[in-house]
Amino acid sequence: MYSAFCLYMTEQGMDNLIRKAGGVLVGFSGGADSSLLLFFLKKYCDENAARLYAVHIHHGIRGEAADRDEDFCRNRAAELGIPFYSCREDVPRLAEEKGIGVEEAARQVRYRYFRETAENLQNPDLPIATAHNADDNLETVLFHLCRGSGLHGLCGIPPIREKRFIRPMLPFTGEEIRDCCKRENIPYTEDQTNADTGYTRNYIRHEIVPRLKHIQPHPAQAVFRSSELLRDDDLYLERNAEEILEGASTLSRETVRDLPFVLQSRVLRKMYHGARDPECDGTLSRKHIADILRCITGEGSRYILHLPDKVEFRLENGRIGFFTEEEKHPVEKAAVPVFFPDGEGIFENECYVMVLSRKNQQKATSAFENIYKLSIQQTINFAKIKGVMSVRYRLPGDTIRYGGMTRKVKKLLSEKHLPEKLRNCLPVLTDEEGIVWLPGFPVREETAGTDSDDLTVFLYSKTDCL
Does position 358 have pLDDT exceeding 60, yes or no? Predict the structure, then answer.
């Protein structure tokens, strides 16, 4: 099995990463997978004069059992003469603070400490080996399949991620790994939480996979082969996307607009991932991609969309980009399309929810009524709207005409004494001739009155602001 292990590392280019960095860091939990990985890499590093380090994470979940695992890993590393590093983190508390699952919080902690350890060793490019195996890959593919993932998700666990995280155990099943541990007399621990089907992956492992074996006796190996084939296709598209980006953080609107959809979505996701915090794991859904493309192909010249992990999509002066919401950038908050009446007619930000509803659509608002306070309900004569309606934030020089006078938006909001943060978040309803309605004030003069095709706008406040 060691020969197959070394061959796989060579085929995937993992050995080149280790040789270039002069060593490798191993995520060592004490289980069979990581124990065999540590054993194999110890042998490999001895043969190739490379340095080896073991890192253990105590997640603060299993009490005394986790303490025993930490002691086991420390002692085992000492037996093998491997430098050992460990950290303790209250993962359940962290998950609650961040509003994420325990599994995701634990993953974030692990990878953060892996990186920190490499930096403390003054080798920030040190490869980091994790013990993901073929069973893990099967569970990942099934999980992504149930979520409606695209090609990238169905590729499963990549052998190498970010050019430094390596998975040398990926071709081997859990059963093969445990058998090898027995043959080589390699001690390991058993994590009792692996039997808890309250965790999604454990449920797949214990409930779904056994049923798959009635159809395919070796599902992990079959899915591993499929993942390798799909990964070739994914790599081809990924390289095309990288050639289009050429390392740029922004692209011209026309460049993205003229691409086939399969590359549009990939380019946009790569740009998004480049902007978000590396510790975050958010991604763009198909709806996010559709909304972004409607901005790119629409007639408006300035747009902003709020995306997961505090990232914004912005379009201005014919160029598109993704930026953190805290990042200073010349693109101002501008048009945010609701695509009414063709789209959903819903806009939401951190302070407000705006719902547009015509009589013949009967837009449901109950979901928001049960959560937020209805601040304003406004009726607009839809027949008098010019072109497509959008929502945007206020801009310098904005005006609205009602009561026979053209009024400056800046002055109106100042007289209302609305806090600066809420002024910046206040959605402004527009059409092709300008502002139709500034919440808290009358609608534009010619759009007042009633008609059989009235538009009703509901503005819900997430705070007492109007």
Answer: yes
